[in-house]
């Protein structure tokens, strides 16, 4: 899944657009919607991002999986709120989670992480953080690959056929995943050192397409959403 998202973000139709525009568009609605308990602004944001996903032709299966899993997790987590706050409040929580899932999936599928790190690394105070994040990106890919290998190996031998086997083999898989990942990290470090790593990550200069018209439209939408929440439409 991680590799797929990374590949789709690089081939997105709007991957050339400046990451700052997509950060404003994707992250600010999540923050603003967090201040309301009414469903209308949330539904408006959900509709807008569904249209954006369709306009950008993002992979619908990934979008549905991303948003649905976040909404299901929120629904399970909010069960305890039913007695204290009622079903309507839990419904709002689920809508917020669905909205956040659509926002984050839009950002993840249209913005390569390298582009974000490239912009952030221009600030000397953030450069070290970006270097760590870049190293962790490769580390997460390694963990994902190890997990896929272990899971498929255990599943092909019937290791998840019943509840007892699931519990036992999941524990074993977690232990092996940790050990194998530590071994793979040595290989990653040797590879980095052999390529002349000097303690910092170089970032290639990349020209992004920044449009004041698009940025203005995003600001208008964010402001309109905030006004809808403020005046309680």
UniProtKB/TrEMBL annotation:
Keyword check for Transmembrane helix: yes
GO biological process, one term: cobalt ion transport
TM stretches of this protein: 12-33, 39-56, 63-83, 89-110, 211-231
Classification via InterPro entries: ABC/ECF_trnsptr_transmembrane, Cobalt_transport_CbiQ, ECF_CbiQ
Protein's cellular compartments: Cell membrane
One GO term describing the cellular component: ATP-binding cassette (ABC) transporter complex
Topology with respect to the bilayer: Multi-pass membrane protein
Pfam families, per database record: CbiQ (PF02361)
Alphabetically ordered keywords of this record: Cell membrane, Membrane, Transmembrane, Transmembrane helix
This protein's name: Cobalt transport protein CbiQ
Native source species: Clostridium magnum DSM 2767
High-level lineage: Bacteria, Bacillati, Bacillota, Clostridia, Eubacteriales
Gene: cbiQ_3
């Amino acid at each position: 899944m991680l590799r797929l998202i990374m590949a789709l973000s690089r081939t997105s139709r709007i991957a050339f657009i400046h990451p700052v525009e997509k950060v404003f568009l994707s992250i600010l609605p999540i923050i603003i919607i967090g201040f309301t308990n009414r469903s209308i602004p949330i539904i408006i944001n959900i509709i807008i991002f569904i249209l954006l996903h369709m306009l950008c032709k993002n992979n619908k299966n990934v979008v549905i999986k991303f948003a649905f899993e976040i909404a299901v997790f929120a629904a399970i987590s909010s069960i305890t709120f039913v007695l204290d706050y009622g079903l309507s409040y839990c419904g709002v929580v689920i809508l917020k989670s669905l909205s956040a899932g659509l926002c984050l999936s839009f950002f993840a599928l249209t913005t390569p992480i390298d582009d974000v790190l490239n912009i952030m690394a221009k600030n000397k105070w953030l450069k070290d953080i970006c270097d760590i994040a870049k190293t962790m990106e490769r580390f997460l890919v390694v963990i994902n690959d190890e997990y896929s290998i272990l899971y498929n190996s255990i599943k092909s031998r019937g290791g998840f056929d019943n509840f007892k086997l699931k519990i036992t083999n999941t524990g074993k898989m977690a232990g092996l995943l940790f050990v194998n990942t530590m071994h793979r990290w040595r290989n990653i470090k040797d590879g980095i050192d052999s390529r002349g790593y000097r303690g910092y990550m170089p970032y290639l200069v990349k020209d992004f397409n920044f449009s004041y018209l698009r940025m203005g439209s995003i600001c208008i939408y964010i402001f309109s959403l905030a006004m809808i929440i403020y005046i309680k439409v």
